């Protein structure tokens, strides 16, 4: 694997097989934080540097499970949030200790909110929240936080850094953004690969195209929460370590689209859209299967998706396909200043 390939894996959990000075082989497991002439890996016991010349092999691996069981069920909420952040990376980001501040011109909450993946700098949540407010003001955006918790909406005690941030937001008068909450659903990738379609992966009478970048028809079909695309959409759509864009076409016209992504050892499914006249014909399920077929050889044994918590039709579709709810998240926003 060359330097550029390793650099594309920065921020992900990797296992690196290296040749030691005595000729034996040894493995290093942890987060890849930097690449130069060495791989810099943050392991559970400390930082390790591995000369590129000693690397024999390596790959991205999923987060460490919190208990025994299939990864799509036993990955922690915080770890899965970290994985998902790799699949939708903003144009501007900055770390404040374990908090990830993100800005992309306001397009999607995922790219324009602070994400708590650890403790804030110096462990001071209130001071960190004040810096969040200042940072977003400097980027012309309302201060917003993405706070994950249990699927039942309970206070996220015991789910890591989200709990203290939620408490600080509530104390500061922040409120949940109406209509912005989402469920995160997960499934085994292997069980998603066999939709009821023909050998081409497309329903009868349609064709399936897969591309590295979205074409004009794909972009025209994608509507985030029913909104037209902003200029900030394309960089986000292409921001994962790897992604592919799926189009179902009827006589050349695009009638359904989806985006598949790879990062952190997981597959992601986003941007599923089906034209009004083609719904209830299995097109969304066919796209889901096509994304799984693409992702599985890349080592992603688990797949996640995010869906609005009030979108009952989509939740039912994904549940029938094999997904189950893993957790939820809400966006909290600072109160508007007085006029």
What does this structure look like?
The chain has helices at 3-7, 71-74, 77-87, 125-138, 162-171, 216-221, 233-237, 283-295, 312-321; strands at 13-19, 25-35, 38-43, 46-51, 55-60, 92-96, 99-103, 115-116, 144-149, 175-176, 182-188, 207-211, 242-250, 253-263, 266-274, 302-308, 324-333. The chain has 339 residues and is an alpha+beta fold. The strands form three sheets. Strands 9, 10, 11, 12, 13, 14, 15, 16 and 17 form a nine-stranded mixed β-sheet that branches. It has a five-stranded antiparallel β-sheet with strand order 4-3-2-1-5. The protein has a three-stranded antiparallel β-sheet with strand order 6-7-8, covered by helices on one side. A hairpin with a 2-residue loop joins strand 14 and strand 15. The mean pLDDT is 91.
């Amino acid at each position: 694997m060359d330097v550029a390939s390793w650099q594309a894996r920065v921020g992900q959990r990797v296992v690196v097989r290296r040749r030691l000075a005595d000729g034996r082989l040894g493995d290093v497991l942890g987060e890849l934080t930097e690449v130069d002439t060495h791989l810099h890996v943050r392991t559970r016991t400390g930082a390790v540097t591995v000369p590129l010349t000693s690397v024999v092999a390596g790959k991205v691996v999923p987060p460490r499970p919190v208990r025994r069981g299939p990864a799509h069920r036993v990955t922690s909420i915080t770890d899965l949030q970290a994985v998902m952040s790799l699949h939708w990376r903003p144009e501007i980001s900055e770390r404040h200790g374990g908090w990830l501040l993100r800005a992309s011109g306001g397009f999607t909450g995922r790219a324009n909110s602070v994400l708590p993946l650890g403790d804030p700098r110096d462990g001071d949540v209130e001071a960190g929240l004040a810096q969040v407010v200042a940072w977003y003001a400097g980027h012309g955006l309302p201060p917003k936080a993405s706070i994950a918790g249990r699927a039942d909406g309970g206070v996220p005690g015991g789910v890591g850094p989200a709990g203290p941030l939620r408490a600080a937001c509530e104390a500061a008068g922040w409120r949940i953004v109406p209509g912005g909450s989402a469920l995160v659903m997960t499934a085994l990738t292997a069980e998603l690969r066999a939709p009821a379609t023909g050998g081409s992966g497309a329903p009868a009478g349609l064709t399936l195209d897969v591309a590295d970048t979205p074409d004009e028809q794909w972009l025209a079909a994608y509507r985030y929460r029913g909104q037209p695309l902003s200029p900030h959409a394309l960089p986000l759509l292409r921001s994962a370590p790897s992604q592919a864009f799926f189009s179902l076409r009827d006589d050349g016209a695009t009638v359904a689209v989806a985006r598949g992504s790879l990062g952190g050892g997981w597959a992601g499914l986003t941007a599923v859209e089906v034209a009004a006249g083609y719904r209830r014909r299995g097109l969304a399920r066919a796209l889901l299967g096509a994304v799984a077929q693409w992702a599985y050889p890349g080592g992603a044994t688990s797949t996640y998706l995010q869906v609005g918590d009030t979108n009952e039709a989509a939740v039912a579709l994904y549940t029938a396909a094999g997904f189950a709810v893993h957790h939820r998240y809400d966006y909290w926003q600072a109160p508007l200043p007085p006029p």
